Amino acid sequence: MENTFKLVIICILASLIVFQGCQSKEEEESQLTPMGRTNQIGELTYNVPDTWKEEKPSSSMRKAQFRLPGVDNTADAEMGVFVFPGSGGGVQANINRWMGQFKQPDGSNSMEKADIKNFESNGLPITIIYVTGTYLQGSMMGGTTTELEDYAMVAAIVETSTDPWFFKTVGPEKTINHWRSQFEAFTRTIKN
């Protein structure tokens, strides 16, 4: 009887471990797969993950704005969506501008530290840029610049037949790293 009881306990524990493993895998997959609603802005449609909160754009230059929740007691990240019809510069000009908003603790060039990936999805060329360092908030607009250490940016430039669209997400490095895979999965839902 005692051996039967031990066997039952072992089976229950094994079942819980397997169940927990399945649950973790489902949670992991949900991080990588943007679920939720379909949004349309201008000529583009895309699937927005349920966990991203849509906000009123903080600037008239932004076509949309989303808040990506912080993790491990870090602040939220913010994604601005931009298009500049007939202007805005090409892909490299924007990458260069964004790299100028980060400085590296060791004094090296942010471009050397950046991870840049190019691919095509739904017939659209997409460039994803990821960089970490000290974010120079406000540096694009002139005036006062605030230095935010241990920050990161993950951004996408989506080239359409008319104008490039920019999806720029900035926040604490831990928060950006948490959402980085889902951000890329999100870009793959963008359609023209």
Task: Characterise the protein shown here.
The chain has 192 residues and is of the alpha+beta class. It folds into 2 domains: 1-32; 36-187, Protein Transport Mog1p, Chain A (3-Layer(aba) Sandwich). 31% of the residues lie in helices and 38% in strands. It is globular.
Summarize this structure as a short list of keywords or feature phrases.
Protein Transport Mog1p, Chain A; 192 residues; alpha+beta; 4 helices; globular; 10 strands; 2 domains
Helix-strand layout with pairing:
Blueprint: H1 2-32, E1 37-41, E2 44-48, E3 53-55, E4 62-68, E5 77-83, H2 91-99, E6 102-103, H3 110-113, E7 115-121, E8 124-137, E9 146-159, E10 164-172, H4 173-187
Antiparallel strand pairs: 1-2, 3-4, 4-5, 5-10, 6-8, 7-8, 8-9, 9-10
